[in-house]
Specification:
About 45% of the residues lie in helices and about 20% in strands. By secondary structure, the protein is α/β, with parallel strands linked by helices. It folds into 2 domains: about 5-225 and about 425-550, Aminopeptidase; about 225-420, Alpha-Beta Plaits. The longest helix is centred in the middle third of the chain and has 34 residues, at about 315-345. It is globular and about 90 Å long.
């Protein structure tokens, strides 16, 4: 190898050229292409038993994880991991044919931005791409350049005449949807380590971060990752003829009040180690009325992205349940004021005295089975089997269908709401310095970041939390059993569409940090990677941290 830059650049371009949109045939075939590439290298040609494709568990898309292990002296092992799936290329529009061809895309994107850039974001993209320091392309940032850096480190390690320890490279699918790859890898690793005689000391995730400034925020080692919940709310109103609005409670009013109270509510932010997680944001709000008529909607559905740094599941559930209850009371108070105002102008009328109630999914489930007995149980089994056959159904909609059925059997009436976790929970993780293996990785991260920053005269920080939702959650989390119980009891899909043994991750006890590239505009057509740092500094930093851990082992 001449320099890291040339190797990582060429690998990035090659990896981007292989399409791998999540849940597509390209994603299914991508790992085989990487397998074939690695099989031709000197090390794996001589050691084919250390290169493996393994199907991900319970995966209808037939995808595979790739495991590539370069062996050295002793069992100590550092894992390098990253995902290879990418989001859709549809937002490239007329540039879609070149979305996976970075060198051909670059001049075309510059030309289009030169002609049409009006926003500050487009102007920044144009300036970046004209500078020659940025490379565009779907997956160039998220996260094939990270995989390329990890591969470059793996191949350099393989080229050493004497090697201390082992490097295990893992490429996984499906991070952009449900992390099938990482969840499967977490379950595969104990058996793989036993088969290959590996002592897994640490892991380095290779995911990219975004930085719209100088790079000071993106040029970092992250000692942990945010957790993610999808608090989902099934809202029940009381329908009425539109000419008699105060005879009912519009579910849209209740849903709007919930969204207004929760959307970007900074008071709900989780803060640990001096870093504050982003506030919750709405990802969906819609009524469930299937057709037009002059009856007000009786049901609505909304859900929110909520990121955590340390807050346990029970606290998250209790917090959202309380916020939803307060929102319903606010909505009813506003409704009452409007009803009184209307009555003052139109004449006295008798109105129902509404009382709201809010329940967790676990409470609804218990109530419905108690009220509906065998009929409810049979209906729930039939619906679950039916929904499992619909491969186009997203996880929140699957959850909503389950809640709707249970609500019908519960005997409860609105105005009310049910709070659930509508999708896969990503646990937060953070290197724990009180545990020796974690402390060794943390010390190596600080030591090597400081040394490399001084040598290269560049900014390199060590930060607590990687802000993007990532596969780190399924390698390095120490999620408590009580948290797992709360998540399982309040996730409608648990045991059917979603199954994962969080205890297996806890038993793996694998400290993990993130060292990856930075760039701008995740998931957008102007997605681009900052090459000087990502292609030169990142692989050197990965190399040094890995060597530090192995040498100290």
């Amino acid at each position: 190898m001449t320099t890291w830059f040339e190797t990582v650049r060429d690998l990035t371009i090659q990896l981007v050229r292989w399409p791998s949109v999540t849940n597509s045939p390209g994603e299914r075939d991508w790992s085989q292409q990487l397998y074939d590439l690695l099989a031709q290298t000197a090390y794996f040609a001589g050691h084919p038993e250390h290169l493996r494709l393994q199907r991900t568990s319970a995966d209808r898309y037939e995808r595979s994880n790739l495991y590539a292990c370069v062996r050295g002296a002793g069992p100590a092992t550092v894992v390098l991991a990253g995902h290879y799936d990418v989001v859709s290329i549809e937002n490239y529009g007329n540039l879609a044919p070149w979305a996976t061809e970075p060198l051909e895309l670059l001049p075309r994107l510059i030309a289009e931005l030169s002609a049409n850039a009006t926003s500050d974001s487009d102007q920044l993209a144009l300036h970046d791409l004209q500078s020659g320091d940025y490379l565009p392309g779907r997956g160039a940032l998220d996260m094939k350049s990270g995989l390329a850096a990890g591969l470059a480190v793996l191949l350099k390690f393989a080229a050493q005449p004497e090697r201390q320890g082992n490097l295990l490279f893992i490429a996984t699918p499906d991070e952009e949807d449900s992390s099938h790859g990482a969840r499967s890898a977490a379950l595969d690793l104990p058996g793989l380590a036993q088969e290959w005689g590996l002592d897994l000391r640490a892991a380095i995730n290779l995911d990219a971060s975004s930085d719209h400034g100088s790079g000071a925020d993106g040029q970092a080692i992250f000692l942990g990752t945010v957790g993610k919940f999808l608090p989902s709310v099934y809202v029940v109103g009381r329908d009425t003829h539109a000419g008699y609005p105060f005879d009912g409670i519009n579910a849209n009013l209740l849903a709007a009040a919930i969204t207004q109270r929760i959307e970007c509510n900074v008071a709900l932010c989780d803060e640990v180690e001096g870093e504050i997680a982003p506030p919750p944001v709405s990802l969906k709000q819609a009524d469930l009325k299937p057709q037009y008529d002059v009856t007000t909607p009786a049901r609505a559905w909304c859900y929110f992205n909520y990121l955590t740094h340390g807050r346990p599941a029970a606290e998250v559930l209790a917090c959202f349940t309380a916020e939803v209850g307060a929102a319903l009371q606010t909505a009813l108070s506003a409704y009452d004021r409007q009803a009184q105002s209307y009555a003052a102008r139109s004449g006295p009328s008798v109105r129902p005295a509404w009382v709201t109630h809010v329940h967790t999914f676990a409470e609804l489930h218990e109530r419905a089975l108690a009220q509906g007995g065998g009929a409810c149980h049979a209906a729930l089994s039939d619906l679950t089997a039916q929904l499992m056959q619909d491969h186009t159904l997203d996880t929140p909609t699957f959850s909503r269908e389950i809640i709707e059925l249970l609500w019908r059997y519960s005997g409860w009436s609105g105005p009310a709401a049910v709070v659930a976790f509508g999708s896969l929970h990503y646990p937060h993780s953070l290197v724990d310095p009180s545990r020796p293996q974690h402390a060794r990785l943390q010390a190596a991260a600080h030591r090597q970041a400081a040394a490399l920053a001084a040598e290269r005269n560049t900014s390199l920080r060590v930060r607590p939390f990687f802000t993007g939702i990532s596969d780190m959650s399924f390698f390095g989390s120490a999620m408590a059993p009580a948290d797992q119980a709360v998540v399982q009891a309040n996730t409608p899909l648990w045991g059917s569409r979603l199954q994962f043994d969080y205890a297996a991750v806890r038993a793996l006890d694998l400290p993990i940090v993130n060292i990856g590239p930075w760039g701008r505009d995740y998931h957008q057509r102007s997605e681009r990677i900052f090459m000087p740092y990502s292609f030169e500094v990142v692989p050197e930093l990965i190399w040094r941290v890995a060597q530090d851990v192995l040498d100290g082992g």
